[in-house]
Amino acid sequence: MNLDFTFYNPTKIYFGKNALDNLPAELENYGKTVLLVYGKGSVKKLGLYDKVLEMLHQAGKTVVELSGIKSNPSYAQLQQGAKLVREHQVDLILAMGGGSVIDCSKGISVAAYCEGDPWQRYWVDFEEVDNPIVPVGSILTMAGTGSEMNGGSVITNDDAKLKNGRVFGPEVYPKFSILNPEYTYTVPKYQMVSGIFDTMSHLMEQYFSGEDDNTTDYLIEGILDSLIHSAREALKDSESYQARSNIMWCATLGLNTLTGLAKTQDWEVHMIEHQLGAYTDCAHGAGLAAVSVPYYRYIAPYGLDKFVRFAQKVWKVDTTGMSKEQAAMAGIDKLADFIRELGLPTTLRELGATEEMLPDIAGSTIPGGGYKSLQAQDILTILKQAY
Ligand code: NZQ
Ligand code: ZN
């Protein structure tokens, strides 16, 4: 492991069928006023909203609500939340939902007492947070992003047509996250597979960079193994606790910094998807699926050995008699097969993108990459291949 690192992740995880039982004790650590943040209603159908509200009332909390957080959460909703925090002097932000709700809650927590324009300072100029941060706790209802145990906050600014991701430090991570895999049984299949692919993409973004013999890469291969196996099980039986619990934990491990330690990383698939999302509002994991195969075919020649290892270790391809190029492509073909098996889109067209959008998406994507650093022209070529 050639790169030095510091590993510190302060989020406390409560995992399992009875994880919610830990909420009352956690609530004792915070003041009286709680901002309850959730999405468009799935938590009510799940019965979770009623249970949590009762726990909050029993703990003597004053509850302020911010509901209707949309997928790909908007900066306008974040500002609305920040205003509620100031008006009611909120002591804890309790996020109940998927990555969008948790990302928005972290955004609210840093924006509420920010002097100046939070969007410009934190999501464009990436300044350090120098104002009070309101603590966030989360109750996760859909697996995929890893937001429950990291500092990520991906926010869409509709006016600027930008979906910008910001990774804050440990002081912004959720203080605690409650993970009950049973909550994910009601996630629609399309969202379930989008989440699974999001996790897969996080692992690949961290894997496809660097050349040393690194323990982190072995860890990623192991998690991918479990994720692929459990995804197939969940497709057969959406209420398999074993499969859903594995998927949920793979998602958390996939982006809680553990699988990026001592590694350079790529993240260009995510950069492209974020702008694709800003233009089409597609589900994040679905956008990643449509971009990944053309992207990896484009960069594989620059990191051949790692792509051969991917074919052998992750997809168990017998590469005997193949050239390195053939072996690398065989692994990417397996990835394409898996995307089809999940039923995810393989073209940008299916996500509502138009040919006219492609130059704008390419031009507004932050350039970069792992084995090859891409410029706008490369990104446009990949987008055209994905179209
Ligand atoms: O709005 P509700 O009614 O809650 O419905 C949601 C939403 O429609 C639904 N859902 C969630 N749990 C459910 C459920 N439906 C039924 N039963 C349940 N138990 O699922 C839909 C999608 O939810 P959302 O939170 O948008 O999905 P996801 O968790 O994939 O989050 C996506 C957002 O996270 C960002 C993405 O860019 C996107 O904006 N990301 C955040 C990251 C981070 N913080 O580190 C990293 C990721 O790479 C990603 O960029
Ligand atoms: Zn992602």
Task: Put the structure in a nutshell.
With 387 residues, the chain is an alpha/beta fold. Helix content is 48%, strand content 11%.
Tell me the quaternary state.
single chain
State the helicity in percent bands: 40-55%
- Structural class by sheet pairing and helices: alpha/beta
SSE arrangement, N to C:
EHEHHEHEHHEEEEHHHHHHHHH
> How far is the first residue's CA from the last residue's CA?
38 Å
Largest beta sheet, briefly?
Answer: 6 strands, parallel
Q: Give the total of beta strands.
A: 8
Number of helices: 15
Low-pLDDT windows of residues:
none
Molecules bound to protein:
5,6-dihydroxy-NADP, zinc ion
Report the β-strand fraction as a percent range: 5-15%
**How would you state the average pLDDT, rounded?**
97
Radius of gyration: 20 Å
What does this molecule look like?
- With 387 residues, the chain is an alpha/beta fold.
- 48% of the residues lie in helices and 11% in strands.
- It contains 15 helices and eight strands.
- The longest helix has 22 residues, at 215-236.
- It is globular.
- It binds 5,6-dihydroxy-NADP and zinc ion (ZN).
- 5,6-dihydroxy-NADP binds next to helix 5, strand 6 and helix 7.
List the helices and strands and how they pair.
Blueprint (H helix, E strand, L loop, with lengths): L11 E4 L7 H5 L5 E6 L3 H4 L2 H11 L3 E5 L8 H14 L3 E6 L1 H13 L6 H7 L11 E5 L11 E6 L4 E6 L8 E4 L9 H19 L7 H22 L4 H14 L13 H13 L3 H16 L4 H11 L9 H19 L14 H8 L11 H11 L1
Parallel strand pairs: 1-8, 2-3, 2-4, 4-5, 5-8
Antiparallel strand pairs: 6-7
Helix pairs in contact: 4-5, 7-8, 7-9, 7-11, 8-9, 10-11, 10-14, 11-13, 11-15, 12-13, 14-15
Bound molecules: 5,6-dihydroxy-NADP and zinc ion.
The site of 5,6-dihydroxy-NADP has 33 residues, from helix 5, strand 6 and helix 7.
